C-alpha cells in the first residue's frame, strides 16, 4: 500500500470517529483528528487512526451493553442474556479477526471494513429495538419481502463465473444472503406462519439459483432444528422446500476459487502463525455462545436460540468444507452485519421472553393481557 493511500485512509477513519463517539466527547474527537493530521509518517497516522476507531467501537459496545453506574454483578447478569452476550461475542470475534488480518498482511482497508461493519451492525441493532414488536407482528410479510430480495439478487445481482450472490454498494460487494438469511431463520423460529413459510421457500429457491451450497445447507439445518423442536405445518413445509433447494445446490457445480483472507482461513491462518490460527478458531467458536445461554425452561425463545446456533454452526462448517466466507473472523462485513442482525431476533432476557409467551397465550385464549398500559414487550 502506498503512503498516499495510507494517508487517505487515515483521513477517512478520522472523519468516521465523529459517528462512533458520543456528542459529549466531541472535543476528544477533534483532538484525535488533529493528532492524526499532525503525524508525519503516513502509515503511523493510519495505525493511530485505527487505534482511535477501535477504542470508539469498544465504548459503543459497552454503552450498548451496560448503562453507566452499573456494577460488576449487573454486568455479569446482563451477559447471561443471549442477545447481550452475542454483542460481546461479536465484538471479541471481530477483534480477533482483525488481529488475524493484520498478522497475515491483509490490505489496510480490510480491518477498516470489518470494524465499520461492526459499528454499522451495532447501530442497526439499536435502531431495531423500537420496531422489534411490530416486526414480530408482521413477520410473515417481512420474511416474504426479504426472501424476494434474495431472489432478486439471484436473478439480477453482481455475478462471478455465472454465480450471482452479491450486490455492489459503492466500492464494496455485499453478500445479501449472509446479511439477511440468519435473521430470517431465527425470526421464523420465533413465530412460524404460513406466509413466513412462503418467504422461507422463496429464499430457498433463491439460494438454489445462486448455486450457494453453504447458505442452502445452513437454511436446511436451521429449519430442521426448528421442525424437530417445534413441529408445525409451516415449519415442515419450509423444511421440505429447503431440503429440495439444498439438493439442487449440491447437484450444480460451484467452482468459485478461494478468496484470500476470506475463504479457508480456518486452516490457512495457522500457516501465518499458530496464534493467528488460534484467534480465528476461537473467534468462530464464540459465535455459538448465545445459543447455549438462557434458562432451559424458557418457552419459544429456546427454539430461537437453538436455531440461531444451528445457523451459525452451518456457516462455520461450510467455511471449513468449501470455498465459502469464514463468518466474522474473515474479511467481509456481510457476515458481521448478519450476525448482529440475527441477534435482534433473540430475547434480551428470559423474563421478557416469558412475558411475551404468556401474553401470546392469553391472546390465543381470548384473555385480556395483564400488562399495564404503556408497558413494553421489546
Q: Can you offer a commentary on this structure?
A:
The N and C termini lie far apart (46 Å). This protein has helices at residues 3-20, 26-38, 42-65, 72-79, 82-103, 109-127, 132-137, 139-156, 176-190, 194-209, 213-229, 233-251, 265-272, 274-286, 300-321, 333-343, 350-365, and strands at residues 158-160, 163-169, 172-175. The relative contact order is 0.12. It is built from 17 helices and three strands. Helices cover 70% and strands 4% of the residues. The protein is globular. It has a three-stranded antiparallel β-sheet with strand order 1-2-3. With 378 residues, the chain is mainly alpha-helical. Helix 1 (3-20) packs parallel to helix 3 (42-65) and helix 10 (194-209) runs parallel beside helix 12 (233-251). Mean pLDDT is 82; it is low at 67-77 and 350-378.
Summarize the structure.
Helix content is 70%, strand content 4%. The chain is mainly alpha-helical.
Name a few traits of the molecule.
378 residues; single chain; three-stranded antiparallel sheet; mainly alpha; 17 helices; 4% strand; disordered C terminus
Write the layout of secondary structure elements.
Elements: H1 3-20, H2 26-38, H3 42-65, H4 72-79, H5 82-103, H6 109-127, H7 132-137, H8 139-156, E1 158-160, E2 163-169, E3 172-175, H9 176-190, H10 194-209, H11 213-229, H12 233-251, H13 265-272, H14 274-286, H15 300-321, H16 333-343, H17 350-365
Helix pairs in contact: 1-2, 1-3, 2-3, 3-5, 3-6, 5-6, 5-14, 5-16, 6-16, 8-9, 8-10, 9-10, 9-11, 9-15, 9-16, 10-12, 11-12, 11-15, 13-14
Amino acid at each position: 500500500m502506498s503512503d498516499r493511500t495510507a494517508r487517505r485512509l487515515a483521513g477517512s477513519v478520522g472523519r468516521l470517529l465523529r459517528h462512533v463517539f458520543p456528542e459529549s466527547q466531541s472535543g476528544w474527537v477533534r483532538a484525535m483528528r488533529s493528532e492524526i493530521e499532525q503525524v508525519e509518517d503516513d502509515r503511523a497516522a493510519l495505525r493511530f487512526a485505527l487505534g482511535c476507531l477501535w477504542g470508539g467501537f469498544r465504548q459503543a459496545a459497552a454503552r450498548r451493553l451496560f448503562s453507566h453506574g452499573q456494577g460488576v454483578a449487573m454486568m455479569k447478569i446482563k451477559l447471561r442474556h443471549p442477545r447481550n452476550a452475542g454483542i460481546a461475542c461479536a465484538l471479541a470475534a471481530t477483534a480477533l479477526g482483525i488481529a488475524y488480518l493484520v498478522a497475515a498482511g491483509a490490505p489496510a482497508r480490510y480491518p477498516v471494513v470489518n470494524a465499520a461493519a461492526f459499528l454499522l451492525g451495532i447501530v442497526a441493532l439499536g435502531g431495531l429495538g423500537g420496531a422489534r414488536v411490530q416486526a414480530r407482528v408482521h413477520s410473515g410479510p417481512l420474511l416474504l419481502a426479504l426472501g424476494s430480495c434474495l431472489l432478486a439478487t439471484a436473478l439480477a445481482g453482481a455475478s462471478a463465473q455465472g454465480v450471482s450472490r452479491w450486490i455492489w454498494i459503492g466500492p464494496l460487494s455485499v453478500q445479501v444472503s449472509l446479511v439477511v438469511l440468519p435473521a430470517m431463520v431465527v425470526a421464523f423460529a420465533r413465530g412460524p406462519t404460513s406466509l413466513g413459510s412462503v418467504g422461507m421457500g422463496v429464499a430457498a429457491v433463491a439460494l438454489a439459483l445462486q448455486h450457494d451450497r453453504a447458505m442452502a445447507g445452513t437454511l436446511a439445518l436451521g429449519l430442521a432444528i426448528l421442525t424437530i423442536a417445534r413441529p408445525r405445518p409451516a415449519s415442515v413445509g419450509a423444511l421440505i422446500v429447503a431440503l429440495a433447494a439444498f439438493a439442487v445446490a449440491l447437484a450444480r457445480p460451484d467452482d468459485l476459487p478461494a478468496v484470500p483472507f476470506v475463504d479457508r482461513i480456518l486452516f490457512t491462518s495457522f500457516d501465518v502463525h499458530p496464534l493467528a490460527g488460534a484467534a480465528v478458531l476461537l473467534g468462530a467458536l464464540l459465535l455459538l455462545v448465545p445459543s447455549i445461554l438462557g434458562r432451559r425452561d424458557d418457552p419459544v425463545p429456546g427454539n430461537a436460540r437453538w436455531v440461531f446456533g444451528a445457523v451459525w454452526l452451518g456457516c462455520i462448517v461450510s467455511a471449513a468444507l468449501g470455498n465459502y466466507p469464514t463468518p466474522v473472523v474473515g474479511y467481509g462485513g456481510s457476515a458481521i452485519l448478519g450476525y448482529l442482525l440475527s441477534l435482534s431476533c433473540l430475547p434480551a432476557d428470559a423474563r421478557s421472553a416469558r412475558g411475551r409467551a404468556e401474553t401470546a397465550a392469553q391472546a390465543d385464549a381470548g384473555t385480556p393481557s395483564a400488562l399495564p398500559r404503556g408497558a413494553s414487550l421489546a
